[in-house]
Amino acid sequence: MNRSKFIQGLKSDDQLSEKERRRILRGTVKKYPWKLNCTIAMEEFAELQQQISKQIRGYGDKLGLLEEMADAYICLSLLESIFDIKQEELQKAMDVKFQRERERLRA
After folding, report:
1. Which of 27, 78, 93, 107 has a CA positioned 20 to 30 A from the CA of residue 101?
2. By the 8 A CB rule, do 37 and 82 touch?
């Protein structure tokens, strides 16, 4: 996304409802082939990796990281829809992973 448009959008008071976000996601899943959406998701995750790497090396910027994190979250939502992953299933899987991490923290 154009950097100035992204910054302008962050400064705006516009906010989408959850219903509108879901409508947009459904439209994206319908309009584009699932393999294309999956490929774009992989590319967005790679861009997030690059931003994290820049942060670690000390020359990243918060806005770049924020933008790539937003893209990654959107792509995760697309993948949930494409592969019919229910929110409850995802939350349960996350809880299993959190429990594992809790055990590691206790050790």
Report:
1. 78
2. yes
